[in-house]
Fold each of these.
Amino acid sequence: MARFLFVVPPFFGHISPTLSVGASLLANGHEVAWTGLVPLADRHIPDGGRYILPEAELAPHQDEIARILKRQDDGPSLSGPEVMKLALEETYIPFARIMVPGVMRVTEDFQPDVIVNDCITFAGALAAHLKGIPCVTTTPVPPDVMGDTANSAPKIFEWQQNLIQGLQRGLGIYTDEFVIHSHQMNIVFTSKEFAGFPYPDPHMKFVGPVKGRPNDTPFDWKKLEKATGPKVFVSLGTLLVDIRKEFFLKLIEAFGNGPITIVAATDPSVIDEWPENFIVQGFVPQADIIPKMDAVICHGGFNTVNDTFMNGLPMLITPIAYDHFHTAALIENAGCGIKVRYKRLRVADVQNAMQELLENPKYRLAAQHIRDTFTRAGGNAKAVSLLEDFALSHTVTENA
Amino acid sequence: MDQLIQENKLSKEEIFETLNQFITEVIGEEFVEEMDITPASSFTKDLEMDSIEIVAFSEKVKNHFGPNIDFTGWLSNMDLDEIIRLKLEDIINYIRECQ
């Protein structure tokens, strides 16, 4: 049996797949702990696991952490290049600097056989490097969001290199190699077909989406059952609070009192009066609702993207910021959806796109193909066996 | 000499009008109506162009002003701050330099 330490960022979309995989590792008799930058509610931690917050090491940085987290709210109003700066320079790098001492101490206390760092949580891989502990990286999003900057944008590439080099040097790591990610194994929670990596490097393991944690939130299933026309699920995820009202006003203009039933995952209070054909609820059992739908509208958050294609449904994607544009491009390449950019959202375009998605079978067929690539990739079980094999082979090497 | 150059080179105003037209074609008339496009408008902040729109725009620039306007090549040599600050008048000046 092995000990696994997951190092996660304060973003739930990145934590969520590690909770599923961690729960299965625990069920197989391994010891599993998580560490991060902010507290995580107990109800999220699988039975038998624990979340260790290195409070003493984080205490001097609370103001900076709060400031960086607050800054994330600006994301939707920033341009592409500004978001790149926000992500790497203003978020990932300072988070890594703040987290490393705490992760080092947790590592000394917990003595993991394997450190599993999330792809934007460099502190895990850096601590693993400093401690000589085998490391695996988990990547919940289709990788390579920034593209081939070495060739297409040399100055941006240089900026990335300098930032990462500076972070490593600051920790006394003088190798030219980047050790913010594992070079042994990177588990990616999508399929190589969807991510556009037909021939990935051998250490890149595309396992497809993993099932989310159980969610038994109540829902008005009766009202949904009464719906006769097509049913469409709409989600903007958990972030993006500021633009909700504007977004849903446009959807009401497009679909209000029409033949389509809209299930909207949002706080109902953003709109005074919802049309009859909208079922609105703040937190929803999304994984149970989506199988009953005919299509999905979302901005490109990867939990909803995964749930949608796991059910072979076509998607209307309205990218807003961050990696949404990359995801939208992947969806259009795969043919399983239509992109309407949020900033240029015309009501008529939304109506036409939805009609096309519901009536032209090619989108559903392409979505079903993506579903098949997801299923074939192996999901949770594959991620678990990769981690178990990794722990085993790296222990053997050390003993030999 | 001055007279000759002026005859060959398009004026800043002429280039601006053409670029304004291209922007309208790329991002759509109703969205442009809400913007006050001037030479000081920034590409990312004011026009909120995404990378696909910038590629479409640069294709139009190339087709209109000639293949020696390597707009994408020019952009790819910028760092992030230069791209964030990029204004319509920078492109007007670049086109004039290339002519």
Amino acid sequence: MNLYKTSFRYLFALMVIGFLGSCSDLLNEPAENRAFTDETDYTQTENMILPLIGAYGEFYTRGWEGIPLISVRGDDVNAGGLGDQQDFAEADNYNYNKDYWMFNSLWEVNFRDIFHMESTIEQIELYEQHAPNTATAEQYKAEARVLQAFLLFQMSRVWGDMFIPPSPDPSDLLVTPISSKAEVMTYISQQMDAVADALPAVNPNKRSDIPGGVTKFTALAIKALANLELENYQAVADATSQIINSGEFALEPDFYELFKLKGKLNDEILLELQYSDFGQPSGDSKNYLMAFFGPQNWTPKREGASGGWGFFEPSMKFIKFMLDRGERVRLETSVLFTDRGIAEIKSDPAYTNLPDWISNVTPSGDRINDYARALFASGKHYLPSEQLTTGRTAYGSNKNMICIRYAEILLMHAEALTRGATSSAMSADEAVNLVRARAGMPALSGVSSQEVMDEKFAELAMEWGIRYYDMVRLENYSELSYGGRTFTADKIFLPYPQNQVDQLPALQSR
Amino acid sequence: MRMKILFTLTLCVMYTLSFSQGREITGVVTDAESNDPLIGVTVLVEDTGTGTVTDFDGRFTVTAETGNTLLISYTGYSPERVVVGTEDNYNVQLSFGSVALEEVVVVGYGTQRTKDLTSSITTIKSEDITKTPSSQAMQALQGKVAGMQIVSSGTPGSGPTVRIRGIGSFPGSGDAAPLYVVDGMFFDNIDFLNNNDIASISVLKDASAAAIYGVRAANGVVLVETKSGSYNQPAEIVYDGYYGIQVAQNVLKLANAEQFTDMALESGSEADISFIQNAMQRYGRSRINPNVPDVNTDWYDQILREAPMQNHSLSISGGGSNATYSIGGSYFLQDGILDMKNEYERFNLRSKVDYKATDWLTIGGNMLLSNSTQYAPAQDAWFRAYFAVPIMPVYDDMNEDAFPVNLANAQDLGYRGGQNPLSSTLFNNNRLKRRNLVANFYLQVDLIPEKLTFKSSYNHNYLSYNARNIDLPYFIGNGYQNPNSSISRTYENRSNQIWDNLLTFTEDFNRHNLQVMAGTSYRDEAWDQLRATGLNFPVDQEEAWYIDQAETIPVDNVGDNGARQYGLSYFGRVAYNYDHKYLLYGTLRADGTSKYQEKWGYFPTVGIGWVASQEDFFNVTGIDYLKFRASWGELGNDNVPASDGARTTDIITTAIDDQLVTGTTSLSVFSYLSWEVVEELNFGLTSYLFDNRLSLDADYYIRDTKNAVIPVENPSIGGTVRKNVGVIRNSGFELALNWTDNFSQDFRYYIGGNISTLKNEVVDLFGQAYVDGGSAEFRQRSIVGQPLLAFFGREVVGVYQNQAQIDADPVAVANNLEPGDLIYRDQNGDGEINDDDRVILGSYLPNLMFGGNFGLGFKGFDLSVSVFGQSGNKILNRKRGEVIFTSDTNMDADLAINRWHGEGTSNSYPSSKGIRKGWNQRLSTYFIEDGSFFRIQNVQVGYNLKGADLGSGMPDIRVYFTAERPLTLFDYNGFNPEVATGIDRQTYPIPAIYTAGLNVRF
């Protein structure tokens, strides 16, 4: 009995220990709720579009500070919003602080997506191995390349010499030499040549799989932009000619509405950042932070609509330039006036009598009230309160951000021709007059380079710093020395962000 | 008659049989010095498991037989053994002050006698834990354990930040919180326990003590024993409760309307001046000073309140010869001092039962149910109250469109933000319900009586977590509104199981004492979560606050997640000593885990000790006991994730042609991680002096985290990927002294103190010279050779006082500076001031902490006082630093009054104009402040009434008054200098608490 009891005790202890040994398999259980890239089934080639949609998702997700920083330095626009983000205002005054967070953020956000595009291409290639034909894969990869090129193009315009990513692994940049701006632009041009034919030759809004996505003409547009930076005007003329000759694009007749909801997937657009609140009063919403550009104080036509932050103020120089030209359509579209701003214009004896359509009430009926931080707000980033989806109040909700539009193509074409390039697509006069006609401006004949530049100023102000980069390219620094600023050649590029200099050997030697 | 005799005989025989253990032994236990009877002394009959405690007259009665040994022990007294002879009555005297050498401490999977320890363990008893009125037991340990930093949290229901011997993991990479082991079950925190549930808390500080917990032990281990009964103890019923009021302390003074107006007028900013004008137009001019708007709102005053707290607990414990039990319940309720739905309520029930089923089998069970509801504060109210301008009223009748209340809107004055902090407190309701069930069952088999035991115990912790966060809609202005009500729900379940099996062998032969333990542990930790958000639901009735009632449920906010991890461990311990003179200790734990790619880790430790005072040659007057200790050990930290980066594919949604579409995104930044390994060397000394009246514990340690998980920057794309490549060192010295004595029979006192130093240092960062933390504006940098995440910026040497000084300084000229701007030190002497002139400005970790306690008792009265302080840490006053984002808001009065406003007015603060300039907004010593403080932590006065004095059957009664944190002294410009991360942006103030309490013991 006792023996039995004692044995039982030991047996029990042994059983317990023996059982535990068999648990060790559990240590090899994989982690829960993770979809490892390695485990994706790439034979399901119908999923090949998923990484591409992801690429668009990343491309449309831009930091709110990125586009303002790219765009703020021209004589068309001022930082506005005095009171905070002092270093943003300093950048507008060409005093650059390499430690300023916006510089680093623009760098990192753009590079992150440049690398995202590399990963997207890798992912598509994994599907491609199983795809019955490779045309779709080639098109998708080409789209990612175009999106990447647009980001890289902006980076090089802002900083000049730039890295061309050698691989999908960011740490390879540690040993990558930096390329000159000319090399970057040449690289972009070549890349666009290489991918253009893989892309559908339609207006982006005619694409059925990804409406508003990249097409052959987006690639050609970026090629033209890169060559414009290179002052390779014949290449600009050639690329723009192809776009013009396609007949896929047309100017939106109503310039004002182009920058409103009507501009979404408009025939004029070659590339845009798409946003939406999906027509729902609440819930999912994808938006760029338009509030940054908006007036800080307003009485919206639709009650309850939110105002903006008061940054990004159209310059007095631009407004007077437009008044001098007798522009109405483009000035009314580009600038939101406040009473204080109007009074400030009138304080100049030359402008005491303003046209009576200049008012602090927008054509859509929103009243812009005075606010301390700025005299004017950007009209191209403004969505009338009555166009907001019912229930939504965020400033500019549901508005797209235009990146490249046909008017810019026409004007690039015209500029290239006035600088000696040849084209059979359209003459410089025809191109400029198309743009002018839409703006209600009389036709010109025998346009000069200067007239084209003025036209670009009038047409493209507040958009992507186009004016600034034009003036820099043409070394027309006197235009940039305005409103108390002095521009010199050493101010062209932003300094590399200190955070990047600390990490990347190639930047340290500079 | 014969029958009667037979019957009596039979009875006698039966009596002898059934009480063959022996006869009734009685006695009185008294204090050796005072001859006072000692109440509650434990009297155990060794080897029988029976025993009792003395009554109010120090009397005891036990059943024992000749030859048995009575072990008589009492906290704070040295125990005595009495061998039962022929006498039936034994009077025993215990000597006070020979302290706890014989006391048994919990060491993890077992116990050891204090005198045989080679490691550094500090134990805090129940009496000291319940002195602190708090929902958080760990709060009571603040200042009591040398080397342990406790940073209080003012939020009701939130636990303090606990750090044992510094920080060995990179903040953000791993959790620096210690492992809590409650009756054998592992926890990340003990927020669910009531102070009254706890019998003792032991802090295993060094690697040698903690190594038995292997991969979980790197941040130190805190062992918590809940209350249990004792064998042969009469039932004891105890009620303990208190009621108190919390009062905000050291409320930061904000600039008032006049000071604020002065600042704005001096700013030179047209905008700021126009806002003052707007305020005067809207609200009128002050009659006292017509240049100031007729509004003067003190926003802290608006959001603060005095808040009550209370705790009631009832416990019943005792035991018979075969069983012990302890059952208790408690209720805790605390309102927050932030004036909104902000409170913490908790109801706990617990029971613990042990039963000797046979002479070789003991079984037991232990259950604890904790049910709490926390209404979390809207923390941003603190932040907004600091910045809201004083020239705006709380409510504004002119704001007619406002809904549901006409709160004032700073935008109506021209300010960018609406500012009113009441939109945070009124329109938020964040409820968190936690239900925590802890169950423990065990079975212990004596394989060889007194020598070899086997114990199998199973623990289960089931935690359900139900969070409901409500944002109510409001409209205060176009730019200050929340059009959609939103409800977010998160349901989480956590089910953790541990099954431990232990074999313990104890053998004492000649003068050799040996204890060997071998064990296995199986762990299964499962967690799952479901969350969703709904928009626009009927807000008026709380019954409708469900996602089902919502108009829309955004797809992007629905999530489902889970994790399951398994662990398997084998461990062993050998503790050997020769004559309690030469001590040797070693443990080894092999930990297997499913979490990491690497499956098995091995964590050894070795400790040695030499009790010099046991040597024959040792004869130093005054030193009663002297022990030298040394130990080495390795620990693991598995609070780091299994991998970092994203070679995983993530789902992303985007808008294409106004349709929400789904895609995937991936980035090739990835690394597998493994646990961190901490290696520690500890040297210590334990001594008792002057007839055991003074005890001394001193330790020096060097603690290296060898493969710390540190962020390695991703070039160009930003962000970091973490890798096991850093080395972080913490080292320090700890000293604890306690003196206990009595002046007379009635008058006893004690005084104690502890002090600890900490040096935190980054030793290696994988070849990187530093790793940046914080943000670009408020940089914290971990530089090799410096503390982790030290504040990194410029050094202010003064303020430019006049134009001549500006003209003479090329730096000032180059940067268009004016009088009233800060002068920075040109650290590299290149004649320019830029980011290359940044230096380390200090660490948020204190390098010196000290605590003290003092107590005295006179007859029925007792008084205890404890103090706590720290120095060497810095605080980033980010409230002031926020000016970089919005420069037109309010500030604290100190800054407004002491600003530079003319030559000689200040050499440390910029002018009003300067405050708004980028030049003065760079992180500098201007924003970094000293976090040193000294605090009276706790004062308690009590009066004790013996039930016997009140009449037969009356309970013992204790009435007490507590002042918790009545006084804190510091220089920092904020509510309180306790800021866990060192960054003070919105910290819940730590209130003072005044309570009255009652303890009744039947």
